[in-house]
Amino acid sequence: MRVLILAPHDAALLPSNALTVVVLAALVGVGIYTLRRRDLGAVHGPRFGRRAQFVVMLRLVRRVFLGVVAALVVTLAARLVTA
User: Looking at the predicted structure, is the pLDDT value of residue 64 above 70?
Assistant: First the structure.
């Protein structure tokens, strides 16, 4: 199954009326999915083991750290260019 992902600059190209329809359709779709899944939330338990959760958390922390570092580098480079 392919999922269409719009970046912010792609969404800016669409008229606001189209985005309203897309958001409304997504809300209705999530609502229907939730209503049809009667067992949703009935069983509580971890989806992954402790090791897998730890690895996922490390990857998330790494991505956030690299994102912050990249933002700082871009900001500093922009200041150096404009100075």
Answer: yes
